[in-house]
Amino acid sequence: MYDTEAIGPTIVGQAKPTMAAAAPTAHQISIEHTFETAHRLPHLGGKCTSLHGHSWRVTVSVFAPTLSTDGTVVEFGVLKTGIRQWIDTHLDHGTMLGARDPFAVYLDTMGSKVFRFGANSCDTVDDTELLATDLPWPTVEAVAVLLRRVSQSVLVALPCAPAASVGRVFVRETHLNTATFGPADVP
Q: Is 20 exposed, middle or buried (0-12, 13-18, 19+ CB in 10 A)?
């Protein structure tokens, strides 16, 4: 969809310039959520080999070329509820580990909440872990991929604008470390 509203002055005898020639337009909404989760990255070496936690922040953007009949991309409340419920159930106040990390079995046995990256259908305890089968370790980049997948699965179950889709997902691991995942052509 293109915005065809005129921009700039027109000169008699010349066509009226439009923004349509400049760039396509779309509607965007964003929601945020914070959660507390530990992880460890023994494959990287260094201090991230130790189990440590972060106050994570995720921003999920949803785009649509047109609005729904009720004038929205998607209703904020139901989108926030779906994404927050998934995060709070599976990640918040838990630990994210690689499926082959020996801590995963130990913490699970001790009754701790564990979400395993790289688990397959043969060794997973929870089918939601299959969203991260191809992500072997819970790096901030992998968490961004996981949360984009979660967000898209939440979105498709909701009433929303035609062609609405999750754009980029921004994840802040610390005040200095962030990762973004989504379509390359979306700002």
A: middle
